[in-house]
Design a protein that fits this description.
Order of helices and strands: HHHEEHHEHEHEHEHEHEEE
Helix content: 40-55%
Radius of gyration: 18 Å
Shape: globular
Largest sheet: 8 strands, mixed
Number of strands: 10
Strand content: 15-25%
Distance between the termini: 22 Å
Structural class: alpha/beta
Number of helices: 10
Length: 278
């Protein structure tokens, strides 16, 4: 993991070198549409305030729970005692990016969503709220955190979410190998066996990240979208991000510094990589 100082320097370089966040000078019609219609959509959608109110509640909750972490911070899955407020402050994706994921789902209309890393369920809630008729499968390593997330989904009246608990290294492959019926997903998904939209926010190490990418790749189509969290969090994650960007199946990538977005559009004449200010 990079130090705060190293990350700050990298962020400054990103701001200097990234394309203008308004879409000027972007010659790809698809990316221009993404920037103008999704990235810079500043409307306040119906679910924003309710989810943000819940986020604030979690940030003030001093209940102590036992957290099992399989990520880069603790590869062994060691239990640690933490306050819910501490988890909320350190693990929840900021409002800016959570709401961007909502807008992406709202705009591109995937038929199913997969999330690796539920945490307390704030980002999951945004993903599920964009269309409550599509199934969202979300994975979480810690049972205690999973239980809290489930209560939050009930509070938000979101019934299109299924949480699967366990180590991603173990549960991802069998989960995506099953049909939607096996996963008890909503009937609207039918027998859809592809991954239309996935947000990967879990084990922030190179080898597992590339492993998840390879596993998901088998289930992608030209319309699939994969979003990777914290692609500049460490040297390992930057190496993983570069390997993903340059994979032959990838035709377009968008680097927003804190997240990286991958597309597989076959109509793309040549592979393109964009770094855009956000």
């Amino acid at each position: 993991m990079y130090s705060k100082f190293q990350l700050a320097l990298k962020y400054v370089c990103y701001l200097i070198t990234a394309s203008n966040g308004k879409g000027h000078g972007i010659h790809s019609p698809f990316v221009f549409e993404f920037v103008t219609q999704v990235l810079n959509d500043d409307r306040t959608y119906y679910c924003y305030q309710t989810i943000e109110d819940l986020r604030n509640e979690l940030k003030q909750d001093n209940t102590v729970i036992s957290v099992e972490d399989f990520g880069a911070g603790s590869a062994t899955g060691k239990n640690t005692k933490r306050k819910i407020s501490a988890v909320a402050h350190s693990s929840l994706k900021p409002k800016k990016f959570s709401q961007l994921l909502f807008r992406m789902v709202n705009f591109y209309k995937p038929k199913n969503i997969l999330e690796l890393g539920t945490s307390l369920g704030i980002t999951t809630a945004y993903l599920a709220s964009a269309n409550n008729n599509i199934p969202v499968i979300t994975m979480e390593g810690s049972k205690a955190i999973s239980d809290i997330a489930q209560k939050n989904f009930i509070q938000l009246q979101l019934s299109n979410i299924k949480i699967i608990e366990g180590n991603f290294d173990v549960i991802l492959q069998p989960t995506i190998s099953q049909s939607p019926a096996d996963n008890n997903l909503t009937e609207s998904c039918g027998q859809q066996s592809t991954i239309d939209f996935a947000f990967i926010d879990g084990n922030h190490r190179k080898k597992p990240t590339l492993q998840y990418f390879q596993q998901l790749l088998i289930k992608t189509t030209e319309n699939s979208i994969l979003v990777f969290d914290d692609v500049h969090w460490s040297k390992e994650m930057e190496e993983a991000w570069q390997a993903i960007q340059t994979h032959p199946a990838v035709t377009l990538s968008i680097d927003l510094f804190f997240i990286g977005i991958i597309f597989f559009r076959k109509e793309q004449k040549a592979t393109q990589h964009f770094t855009i200010r956000f």
